[in-house]
Amino acid sequence: MQNIKSLRQQFPKSGKLLWIGLRPGRKQNMIPVDTVYADENQGLEGDRYQGRSGKRHVSLFQQEHLAVIAAFTDQQIFAPMLRRNLLVSGINLHALKGQYFRIGNAILLGTGFCHPCSRMESVLGPGGYNAMLGHGGLTAKIVISGELRIDDSVIALPDYVSSD
User: Fold this and answer.
1) In a domain, 4, yes or no
2) Which CATH number does the domain housing residue 31 bear?
3) pTM for this model (two decimals)
4) How many domains would you assign to the chain?
5) Phi, psi at 18, each rounded to 5°
6) What is the pLDDT of residue 52?
7) In whole angstroms, what is the distance from residue 62 CA to residue 88 CA?
């Protein structure tokens, strides 16, 4: 019988990076890009959080959860509406909390759940905040700098040991 620690090291498959968005400033529209440099000291080049807390260099959202939020709000949901940097599919982001993973040639560490903010009420309408609860995504710290590109694989690294 396997224990929880060993179960947390097993992933059925890798995921895929579907969309990249940068927030140039507070309340400004997301800018979609095909590629971005992820700097371990500064965060995503061109994002408003660049240079701030290392625990939240990047925010990620699960493509599979777009349909869930759409069902709760009775509207079509698109990645830029949710103000996360990366949209991924095929891998459970919640399982990456506390885990190292690779996107492109960068290595990230899942640092926490990305809870919705009050802005979701204006973006998604009344109840938008509650529609996103439990589906807000993941925050991550960049551990090894590198380029991220649309269609890059998202690969869990259960055996990765940080030099920090």
Assistant:
1) no
2) 2.40.33.20
3) 0.92
4) 1
5) -100, -30
6) 64
7) 5
